[in-house]
Amino acid sequence: MTMPGYEPKLGDTVEDTGCKRVGKVMGFEGPYVQLRPIAGGIEWDACAEKLRPLTVVEALGAGMAVVNARSRGERL
Fold it and tell me: According to the lineage, what is the superkingdom (predicted)?
C-alpha cells in the first residue's frame, strides 16, 4: 500500500511494500530511491511508488527491534 502523493525525503524511515523491508532513505538514483536497512548494511533500490512512510510508532518499533536483537547477540 503506497501513500498517494507521498514523496520520500532523505532520512525518512519507510517500508518498501514491494519486498516488505524497512529502511532509511539514503539517496535517489534516477527513478529509484536508495534505502539502507535500519540495522545498517547494504543499500537496495526501490521504486518510489512502492514506498510507505512509517508512523512514528512503527519507526520506533523498527529501531527497538534492532536494539533488542543486538542485545541478544543476534545479527540482522
Answer: Bacteria
Is the pTM higher than 0.85? The answer reads no
pLDDT digits (tens, 9 = 90+) for 22-75: 999 999 999 999 999 998 899 999 999 999 999 999 988 888 888 888 889 887
DSSP one-letter code for 4: T
What's the confidence (pLDDT) of residue 26?
A: 98
Count the Cβ atoms, other than its own, within 10 Å of residue 29. 10
**11: how many CB neighbours lie within 10 A of its CB?**
8
Instruction: For the chain, give every domain's residue range.
Output: 13-71
Cβ atoms 48, 30 nearer than 8 A: no
Q: Which amino acid is at 10?
A: L
